Amino acid sequence: MTMKNIKIIFILLLAVLTGCSDDLLNKEPLSDVTEDNFFTKASDLQLYTNGFYRLLPSTSIYNGDTRAGNILETTLSEEMRSARTIPTTGGGWDWGYLRDINYFLENYQRGDNASAIAHYGGVARFFRAYFYFDKLKRFGEVPYYDYTIDPDDEESLQKPRDSRQFIVEKILEDLDVAIENLNQDQQLYTVTKYTALALKSRVGLYEGTYEKYRNISGYETYLEASIEASEELMNNSPYKVFSSGNPSSDYLNLFNSHDAVGTEVIFAREFNTALDVDHNVNYYTTTSSYGRPGMPKDLVNTYLNADGSRFTDRPDYNQVFFTEEVANRDPRLSQTIRTPGYTRKGQTQELPPNLGATVTGYQIIKYVTEPQYDTNDQSITDLPIFRFGEIILNFAEAKAELGTVSQTDIDNSINVLRNRVAMPHITINAANNDPDPYMQNQYPQVKGNNAGLLLEIRRERRIELYMENFFWDDMVRWKAGQFITRPLRGLYVPGPGEYDFDGDGDTDVVFYKDDAPGNQIEGIQYLKLDSDVFLSENNLIDPQPNFNNRSFNENKDYLYPIPRIELQLNPNLEQNPGWE
Amino acid sequence: MNTIKRRCRFLTTTIFMLTIYAIGTQQLKAHSNKSSNLDEVIQLLARNYGSINFVYNTKAFKEVVVSDFSPTNNGIENELHQLQQLVPLSYIKKRFTIALKLNKEIEQERIITGTVTDSDNLPIPGASVFVQDTNIGTATDFEGNFTLEVPEDARSLSVTYMGYKKQIVNIENRTEIDIILQTDAASLEEVVLVGYGQTSRETLVDAVSKVDAEQIQQRPIADVSAGLQGLSPGLNVTQSSGDPAAKPRINIRGFTSINGGEPLVIIDGVEGDINNLNPNDIESISVLKDAGASAIYGARGAFGVVLISTKNPKTGNLMVSVDATTAWNSPTVNTDFLTDPYKAVMLVDESFRTAVGRSYTGYNEEDYQNIYEVSQDPSLARVETDIRNGREQYIYYGHTDWWNYFFRDSYPTQIYNVSVSGGSDKIKGFFSYRNYNSEGILKVQDDHYKIYNLRGKLEMKINDWLSFTNNMQYNSSNDLKHGGSQYGWGDQFNGNIYVHGLPSYMPQNPDGTATWRTELNNYTIGDGAYASLLYGKAKQETEEGEFSNIATLKLNPVKGLDVTASYAYRRTNYNRYRRSVNIPYSIYPGEVNTMGTDQLTEYNTRFKYDAFNIYGDYHHQIGDHSLKATLGFNQESFYTKSTTASKQNSISDDLNSLGLATSNPEALGSAAEWALQGVFYRLSYDYKDKYLLEVNGRYDGTSRFPEEERWGFFPSVSGGWLINKENFFSSLTDTFNLVKLRASYGSLGNQEVANYAYIPTLRKNIDGNFALNGRTLDYIAAPGLNPREISWEEVKTFDVGTDIALFNNDVNITFDWFQRNTKGMLTQGATLPSVLGTGSPQENAADLRTRGFELSLGYHHSFEVAKSPLNFGIEGNLSNSVTEITKFDNPNNSLLDYYEGMTIGELWGYHVDGLFQTQDEITGHADQTRVSNRIIANGGLQLGDVRYVDLNGDGVIDEGENTLQDSGDRRKIGNTAPQYLYSFRVNAAWKGFDVSTFFQGVGKQDWYPNGDSRIFWAMYNRPYDTFIRKDLVNNIWSPDNREAYFPRLFGYIALSDSDALGAVNDRYLQSVAYLRLKNLSLGYTIPKRITEKFNISKFRIYFSGENLFTFTSLTDYIDPEAASNSVNLNQPSTSANRSTAQTVPFNETYSVGLSLQF
Fold first, then answer.
1. Subunit contact A50:B778, Cβ cutoff 8 A
2. Which of A88, B287, B554, B906 has the most CB atoms less than 10 A away?
């Protein structure tokens, strides 16, 4: 063999080595699935629907009440200040979850596990209803889609809004399918038949009253749907009002339990120290840099006296010092704010309200746990999304608004809540015969035969569901926007001087004018009037002295604006009234 | 699939055919030889043995007639032997150089001996030593020694060697002359690496700049890219942090594509990581900037190529070189923060009170008094115990400098490098080892960063047509950092240390326990980061190991044809563990509690890379026509696999093993792979070395695109004209050594998209914010809309340039102007209504254009000072680029997205014309709610607040529709892209001393500090920020300080973009342009005659300083390079993308070192 031949063979060998494998450039994903190999097993369906739980709220459950000034903070909400603006993008106009849900509903029947298909199909229907209910509350009418939109489908992308009634029909339809198909077991954190019933109870009441107070005919259907769902939960479910026979602590313990109390809570958002999934309620309510939340005085006023009489019936109800003011009231008051005798969970030391941590002086204690969870983002109480207490309030209100309420209905609902805290019962006659003028002043739009009862139901609802993010929605559906313009007040401060807030005989707070007192004693809060604390003309703390004149635009402010870019992209979409 | 197969067959067959063709032509050539004189014979041999340099006296050889010589192609030694039969000729062969001389020249008169070395005292074998202006000469041997018989009247010697400056030495009466040659960076023959080959500076037709590898060696840097900053115009290197473990980013010619796109880095012919390279191993670096130069790399060369070759083994005795450097690093930024506890507490409480209505600290009047006393007399600093709120607790009256307590003023780095090289013609090797070891800035615990680099290169010449090289590399690094906080693991500089550490607090209680929280308020000092650092158990250790091997066969089957085939294999392992622990602290005397999370997380990632390259070079010359062809095939595959596992609550705080942890196990995993194939070619043609033409191209396929869109063809063409070789220029040739005009145009591809972008997949995710039934929520969501028709972005680059050399190459000028159009950038299609529920599908729909220039000027000269040569050089570089979006589907010109006509980096903001100084100004002023939200909601505007200007006069300060047409009161106020990058170097060497200074700077760049830049904004960001810079304290508006830069003290107003300082505006816009003395070095090489006595061929000691001075208008508490770091030119989002500049401080480094060779 000549040298040249050897060279040629060598090069040929190299050429062969380049060995083009046919599929070198065909690479399939190694760690992601495609739809062809998914949706077959029950665990696939569960894994997919897990994603829907991400649309559940978290901290807004405990601080959402700031929107309507039901909780007051250092900074007043945009809604209260009429400072909402039209956003360019975002602003809640977010549709990603709907696509996820509809995609699931287009694909979930590929497997053959019928019971899993039924249940998880129900989960998806529940969340689609939940999604649209959120959109409806925020924007009013919106376009409805029960399919995934193709990017080339101009018609769908350019669709105008669907009517309110159509959307609510669709929500209720989804819920009925969900109720029929969902599992019936009692679960705290996942969706069951009862969760769907609870949502139906809420949606029905919302839409029924929303339309009733706007004189839209046909609202009765929704109230009836609500009643039907509530009754099902009241009569055929394992849930009841949690009570261990301790009227002075059961209400508090329902919310500061680390794991939600499953006898009453139907559906909760789970928080867990080990997983580092936390919220911030302890820090929020005990420090001075997360807004210093406080209960407004007008709500404190509506708590009845322990004997069932009205606190606001005494003429000096705005000039009663704290310790006297909070004594002998509905026990829920002492289980919602710090009152004399308050101790932190797991502690024995009695604590006065910390005026540095609350702008009104009424320091909220709901959900607050042991001090070890006080640092930023370390709170772990589960937050309730649906609880039986709400269901029976929905029931009573829907019945009363519909005019079909009986004393038995009240006894089966509101009076059960009153039993927990050992408060006297509501009787329909007494309520209707003597409507509370203080409440009437708050809700002048409540009229008719059941006006007195409705006012009592509203009192009960605001107290019972305080700090659970209901108040904005309630105000909207009751068309009670003017309520937002009420004066915002905190507790009564007679003037400069030394005050004992926990009734132990020692001074807790010193209010002074001009120069700070010398020889300050440790453990006492020294607050300068007109500097640290402002007072209104009748000596109530005024946490927002710059915002005593506020307004609410009835034709605009119940809804939120649609982002500008969406109107540019879809000319068939019209802006909400007043926001143009 | 069949098409691919066919393509491959075609390719391999073509390479084979080329070989056959080459064999054929070679045979023809041998017969056509009819030589007439010795010069022509040698020239013929030179062509046939392309790798060998011949050194001889052309004039003399032309006069010698050779009657009957025909080459036999059986080895150069045999050829010369044959020639010696015909003419009286003798020769010396050293490596690739053969020096020839005619025997009749010998007239025995005088013998001079000597050694030729380079400036590093390394011998230069094969250098030509001639008696000036005669043909009497010789070449140096292996050791650089020469012996020359010279005529009596000889005055001087002329010494030349390729790549070095010609040196003329006076003989005088000496018989022993040692000559040191200086490298000639600007030599026209200098070899310049280009893709799959090399060329000379003279014949280069593309925008390629060569970086002097020596400039990055012997600097105390962790990685190569840090050293490249400023060395080549158009090559932009940006560092994001002073942490040596943080890798700088490199970019060529500015903004590339909205999808990113980085230069391809080729190390020894194979794609590699520049930062895993030992800087001392580098032989040469080329930066390929235009399409002409990089088209041969096709789909990945679109945004330039950095070509690096490592040192090759040298023939000869074993040569050992050792370098040792010790460096001390200290922050470039001012760390002298406000530590007066009283002043700090007053400022913090005041800014908190304005925003929140309460005091922050909770100190009472007596406490304030105590703190005031401490501020007057720091020795009174103390921790007291007192009963507050019914409980005995610690009360702090400190005078703490938190920065100094936890961080060092200076920390050391050691670098050792050893290399060994040597061998015979047949087999030789090069081995090197480097150890880099830097400590960390943390004082209370010892952090470190260590790198080991190992390289072994072996070259074997199997026979005269086949050689084999094996190039093995192993790199490993180990990075240990302490950290942690109450939130679990956290990096030291991640933000926690910046809060709640007031000077009046103290890090430790009297009993040695850590402080965390004072019960006077509810805040946590450093969010637990300081307590964690003191405890020292929360840490992160990252280990990376990379093994790579490149085996290369080189064949020279026939004359004129070289075939190179290589196989590269690389395996990388990345391991990291992160540990957070329960951190002990004490609030109440005698009671120790813990905070935080005890969790161990282990990360492991493996990378596999395999590449095969084969290419052939053929060159052929007919008369004045010279042709070179390169053809090759390349195939690469990548694979990566990651796992992450975590577990909580270990039974040990010290041992970090998942086996010891007891609860909440979690594991994640992912994997991906991709591959490339390509065929490439280059044809170069020149006529009379005067007109140069080159075409390059590549046909590339990638797995990242669907089959139908997978293949792309990327061609380029370049041309050059050497004007100085034209006749009409002849009168100027004494001055001009080179005047070249060149231009190139090419179309390349960018495939910088996700691996499986076109395949709809259901991504499995974990959302750590949700728990579901005792587990973190994992879920699967709907696939996004993936189009199947996505393909390459096309990058078309046009470049014109000139290379000019004057005055014996003393002056060099290179200028390039370019325009780069990036077309069909893969982008989200037109924004669709949000009801779609996902991003609109991607399409190749956007275009941009980058224009810029590069200029480099150099002057080098050797003067005679005190009878010794003084080598002096000065070089300067300047470059700029501006990018404009030329097509983007954004019909409303929304400013939230790119729009047509947008300049990359443009910053939109409001106009501020000062602070409110009178109540009247406030009363009549436009509604500022949108840009002063917090102030309006908490008391309204007051004197000293920022005054925004209602530019459109609508009575409201806002962003309008936030479109180009209606931007409200906003306008373009600056640009965040760095502009006019420049650098210059001055160096000189004389009598063994050398000095070099290197300045680098950015001419223009704007920065609007991020709302959470806690150093910049201090109390305006969060009232309780730990580090309050002193230059801010005296610049706060008050009725007595109306001219202040900063407004009335008000907490949190920098934090959100709807607040007074957070809203981007022109008053608080910062310039981060700078000029920095990057490097100053001084060295002294001990004369060889001394070191030789110790058998040491070179001994140099040096001092070097890095980042010694910086000129900038920015506050000296922030490094301008850190401030610009988020402007990732490859990935800007919107103008809101602004950095916090909170990072490990950049370093000012002083180092001393020595290097020796023996």
1. yes
2. B287
* Beta carbons within 8 Å of A505's beta carbon, 6+ residues apart: none
B779 touches chain A (CB under 8 A): yes
The dihedral of CA B43, B48, B49, B51: what is its sign? positive
Contacts 24+ apart (CB under 8 A), B65-74: B65/B36, B65/B37, B65/B38, B66/B35, B66/B36, B66/B37, B66/B38, B66/B40, B66/B41, B69/B33, B69/B35, B69/B41, B70/B30, B70/B33, B71/B30, B71/B33, B71/B44, B71/B45, B73/B26, B73/B30, B73/B48, B73/B559
The tens digit of pLDDT for each residue in B491-500 reads 988 889 999 9
Does A1 score more than 60 pLDDT?
A: no
A210-237 confidence digits (pLDDT tens): 999 999 999 999 999 999 999 999 999 9
Q: Using a CB-CB distance cutoff of 8 angstroms, which residues of chain A are in contact with residue B928?
A: none
For A203, the token pair is: 């949606």
Looking at residue A568, its amino acid is Q
Average pLDDT over residues B79-88: 80
Residues of A in contact with B755 (CB under 8 A): 27, 29
Task: List pLDDT tens digits, range A498-526.
Answer: 999 988 888 889 999 888 777 777 778 88
Widest distance between CA atoms in chain A: 123
Q: Is a pLDDT exceeding 90 seen at residue A291?
A: no
B344 touching chain A per CB within 8 A: no
Residues of A whose CB is below 8 A from B773: 189-190, 270
Q: How far apart are CA A286 and CA B717, in angstroms?
A: 72
The secondary element (H helix, E strand) that includes residue B578 is strand B561-580
The architecture that CATH gives domain A40-232 is Alpha Horseshoe (1.25)
Stretch B336-350: mean pLDDT = 93
DSSP B253-304: SS---TT----EEEETTEE--GGGS-GGGEEEEEEE-SHHHHGGGGGG-TT-
pLDDT attached to residue B24: 41
Here the ipTM equals 0.89
Residue B360 near residue B378, CB atoms below 8 Å: no
Q: Per-residue pLDDT for B91 more than 70?
A: yes
Residues of chain A contacting residue B387, judged by C-beta atoms under 8 Å apart: 522-523
Q: Is residue A224 classed as helix, strand or coil in its secondary structure? A: helix
Give the pLDDT confidence score for residue B43 in this predicted structure: 81
> Per mean pLDDT, which range of B141-145, B363-367, B805-809 is the poorest?
B141-145
Q: Which of A47, A95, A287 is opposite residue B836, by nearest beta carbon?
A: A95
| Predicted local distance difference test score (pLDDT) of residue B495 | 85
User: How far, in Å, CA of B630 to CA of B698, rounded?
Assistant: 11
pLDDT-derived band at A261, boundaries 50, 70, 90: very high
Distance from CA of A89 to the nearest CA of B (A): 9
Do residue A287 and residue B774 have CB atoms under 8 angstroms apart? no
Interface of B with A in 1073-1102 (CB under 8 A): none
Q: What is the pLDDT of residue A4?
A: 63
Q: Does A7 touch chain B (CB under 8 A)?
A: yes
Please give the interface size between A and B, counted as residue pairs whose CB atoms are below 8 Å apart.
Answer: 311
- CA-based nearest distance A284→chain B, Å: 11
Q: Which of A79, A507, A569 to mutate to test the interface with B (most CBs of B within 10 A)?
A: A569
User: In chain B, which residue's Cα lies nearest the Cα of A533?
Assistant: B357
Q: Which residues of B are less than 8 Å from A526 in CB distance?
A: 364-365
- Residue B604's pLDDT is what? 96
Q: Å from B605 to nearest chain A CA?
A: 14
Report pLDDT for B108. Answer: 45
Question: Percent of chain A having pLDDT more than 70?
Answer: 96
Count other C-beta atoms under 10 Å from residue A45's C-beta. 27
Among B486, B770, B833, beta carbon nearest to A566:
B833
